[in-house]
Amino acid sequence: MNPARTINALNRLYALHNRSLPLYLHDAGPWTSREDADATKTVAHIIEDHQHTVERLGAMILDRDGVLEAGHFPMHYTGWHDLSFNFILDRLIEWQRRAVREIEICARELDNDPPAKAVAEEILGQAKGHLDSLVELVGGSRPS
Question: Which CATH number is 3-137's, of 3.40.50.920, 3.40.50.720, 3.40.50.2000, 1.20.1260.10?
């Protein structure tokens, strides 16, 4: 096991979730209407999962004597404050697809740390489930 490589991969997962679009929306919620109720519930669930993941990964990094690297929210998120939830939903799907790819990379980098690998695989499964839920909200009509 290479401790520095493990900490690096865990920190990338940590920053990915800590500065995710869902967590950004938690504080800067988009404009919604009553028709968006199912979507807002789904996103609220994703936000809760991201918050739990951040706590869990943070503890793993600290337990391995690592330093947390929180990351930064992308500046372009600031332009999405007052846009419709339908626009945001498309961005969430795009973000989630990129997140799945990044989590897959990090999980492979954790092959030599079975406990961290198991957590990364669990996070990957959760991310794929989130993507399925988001795509389902739009009727599965969004291109891959």
Answer: 1.20.1260.10
Instruction: Look at residues 12, 3, 4 and name the one whose alpha carbon lies nearest to residue 106.
Output: 12
Whole-model pTM? 0.89
How high is the pLDDT of residue 87? 82
